[in-house]
Amino acid sequence: MATQQRQLPTEQEIAAAIAAAEASRPAAKKVIEKARAFIVLDHPFFATIMLKRPFVERFDIPTLAVTDSGTIFYNPQFIASKTTDEIVWAICHEILHYASGHGLRRQHRDPKKFNYAGDMWINDTLNRANVGKKIDGCIDVPGSADRTVEDIYAAFPPDDDNGGGGDNNTGQGGGQGDDPMEGDMEPDEGMTDSEKAEADANRKIEVAEAAGNAKIRGKLPGVLAKFAEETIESRTPWFDILERFMTERVKQESSWKVPNRRYAPDYYMPTQDSEGSMGEIVIQVDISGSVSRQEIKHYNGHMKRIVEQCKPSKVHVIYTDTQVQKHDEFTKPEDMEIQYHSGGGTHMPAGFDYIQEKGITPEVVVTLTDGYTGWDSEPPFPTVHCISSPNQQAPYGHNVHFDLNDE
What is the mean pLDDT of residues 260-266? Predict the structure, then answer.
């Protein structure tokens, strides 16, 4: 059967589309200005954050979108078709994606599902805060504001490709374009770890400032006060930081299994396979006697989960005091096990020397230690140091402070 060719638009149709787009701009500008004014007058929490955000016009998105660093995009034709109350709601929806750090928290998770989980949490929060008018067709699941986005995401069926799938008013759906605000999170491409950390710190500062301004005016709803308190007091667990570091180094392979929906259905473009893989990694365990059995048990569980997610080709586990005392190799990530051993003194660079002597070329070396060690010069491979003593730090590599209370 011959493939039906896509009918190209005529010059008249192109001209009409351009004219319609241009005609929407003045109306959209008025709606945006009125919505922003209403937010400033009635919702000081959102106003404080909104006034620092750039608003950028884009015709290649259906509604609105926001980046990890807080740029808000909007389609003038969509804006012009809605009431001011609906655009108040839509702008505050995007602000909460940014203020909650949803893009930064997504990590390895499916972008569409995580976006949808974030929408569930946001929309219930806006409803409780009595903000604007929800746009018809957007997800509405009472009780979502009492859960974390990560918990909502984890409750989706693992084989569900539609962000929950089903009726978009029951909390079971919104995929396949049913929800007009679907897919409104856009990552800032090429952000480094330090830039992400800076963006995360900035948005927490903005949330604290926003809550303070709203409280002074007596307009801080309880649901937003709770959100602000949790945001300000939150500390990212060590294993989340380590997972983000490692998953960013996973090699993504082109796949023809799923069409890339950025392109028209008539064109079949490869996507990035969500199941990437790493080369060899090394986990170095300090066995000087200062790392306890409890720490090893806690560390082992989280590290095993991260390794299974990243799928390295081989995992080396080396046990080091002043030299490497034991070396285990695992070719299946799910078989990896970190054991407790006790040794003598401490010199973690001995493990780095051993790795080079054995001809191992790791994508990353993760060291579990109390930090009381010399570090010598930086080795020729990426290093992450999970350090259990809060006052110790390696002079190179990526430092992550290890705490048994992180869960």
Answer: 39
Q: How far apart are alpha carbons 25 and 31 in whole angstroms?
A: 10
How far apart, in whole angstroms, are the C-alpha atoms of residue 152 and residue 163? 11
pLDDT at 169: 37
Residue found under tokens 């990590």: 107
The reported pLDDT for the residue numbered 46 is 97
Whether the CB-CB separation of 102 and 125 falls below 8 Å is answered with: no
Q: Tell me whether residue 359 is exposed, middle or buried, using C-beta atoms within 10 angstroms of its C-beta: 0 to 12, 13 to 18, 19 or more.
A: exposed
Average pLDDT value for residue range 128-152: 95
Radius of gyration, alpha carbons of the chain: 25
The answer to whether residue 271 scores a pLDDT higher than 60 is no
Return the higher-pLDDT residue of 157 and 21: 157
d(CA 393, CA 372): 9
Strands annotated E in 159-208: 185-186
Q: List the structure tokens of 300.
A: 């082992």
> How crowded is residue 55: how many other Cβ atoms within 10 Å of its Cβ?
14
Q: E-assigned strands of 250-382?
A: 254-255, 271-272, 278-286, 312-320, 324-330, 364-369
Q: What is the dihedral of CA 71, 76, 79, 84, to 10 degrees?
A: 90
Q: What is the pLDDT of residues 89-124, one digit of tens each?
A: 999 999 999 999 999 888 888 999 999 999 999 999
- Indicate the SS3 state at residue 215: helix
CB–CB of 288/346 below 8 Å?
yes
What's the pLDDT band for 252 if we cut at 50, 70, 90?
very low
CA angle 323, 326, 332 (to 5 degrees): 135
Residue type, position 352, single letter:
F
Report the amino acid identity of residue 361.
Answer: T
Minimal CA–CA distance to 20: which of 63, 81, 91?
81
Tokens of 251: 């090699």
DSSP state of 64: E
Three-class secondary structure of residue 42 per DSSP:
helix
CB-based contacts of 155: which residues, under 8 Å, 6+ apart? Answer: none
CATH, range 254-401: 3.40.50
pTM for this entry: 0.58
Domain map of the chain by residue range? 11-234, 254-401
Tell me the β-bridge partners of 398: 384
Instruction: Check pLDDT > 50 for residue 163.
Output: no
Report pLDDT for 313.
92
Cβ neighbour number for residue 330 with a 10 Å cutoff:
16
